Amino acid sequence: MPIPILQCDRNSKDQYSRFLLGAREDLSAATARILPILEAVRTKGDQALLSYTEKFDGIKLSQVTIDPKQFKTNIDPKIKEAFLRAKANIEDFHLAQKRESWSKIIDGNRLGVKYTPIPSLAVYAPGGKALYPSSVLMGIIPAKIAGVPSIQLITPPQKEGLPEILVWLAQILEIDRIVTVGGAQGIAAAAYGTESVPKSEFIVGPGNAYVAAAKSFLSGQGLIGIDSPAGPSEVCIIADGSANAKWIACDMLSQAEHGEDSSAILLTTDLTLAKRVSEELEIAFVERPKRLQMKQKAIYENSAVLVFPNIDDCIWFSNELAPEHLEIQTENNEIIFSKIDHAGSVFLGPYSPVAMGDYISGTNHILPTARGSRIYSSLGVDTFLKRVTFQEVTKESLETLYPFVKLMSELEGLDEEHGTSVKVRTKGHE
Length: 430
Description:
Rossmann fold; histidinol dehydrogenase activity; metal-binding
């Protein structure tokens, strides 16, 4: 059962329309189940956290927070080296995103912007098989650079104890505390605050459907800020006949192993390349059978190779798709990239697989999915900054501009107080 190869043009919507639906996880069932949990945490605090941890994780805790500085870790030096290299690259990339407050004179008045960090952040790190310590780096480093003063890590407890890698990362990143509570109850603790868990103003990080539902619901209630709404992982690849079919197949499978609902879309003008990629996928399934059923379902049901008549159509479709990850493997990468308007993160050239950005190159891997990059950006320093505008109006400018304020406030029916508040400051009315 090979991957679908579809010959398309812009008018063949019946061929490609299902890929533009922007797949998001249906959280309605999960939301219904987590609402009582959220309410219990809101009203009962730590007691609810301890109770749900025993119920869902089978672990009886005496407390829900720990100070990472009090623990000793024994991390393999080679693993340390890898994470420290990643940390340095991520810091270098995000330091370039720092914002400086500014002001300028406009019509005689000093106007400007002052950037201030959000006051607090919680980073959620899943446990068990879904342990992604790299996401801890991605969530915390830009927040630190933005100047967020209070950061806590939320993660479910493990029967064998917290993963040492998370404790070590908490130490080198100087996180205030680790909250050993997972699931919706962990998100609720961050949003509401409890006796031992301070309230956070913002939360980032991946999680299961219950975590996603809790983040979405609590954000909708205005209780906590979140990163962009998340759906299944996805990659789109624009490639021509010069591309390496085996490498493309590997890159498609690197997304497929995230989950059976992941998608990988190849856009090309070369039918020969399309067929070779399909063959390479089948070879890979034989040679690398780990998570085979998951990868096959993602490739056969959610992925495709779309063969368009020209490269401009490939670019058009990519912008419509607005993928989480976009790889460009052609003879004219920069020209194509110049025409890309919507993508979470772009990977240029044959030696730029998504996995480089996932771990080590320095860009952030917390990205909008489900066509979210049409309106959202990747996580970065800006995510954790607020923009405060200010103005200092001079007496001379107030005198000059009052007649305009008078006319505009009268038009809007607000001259009695709006207009008067300026008038009383003008010459002869002080």
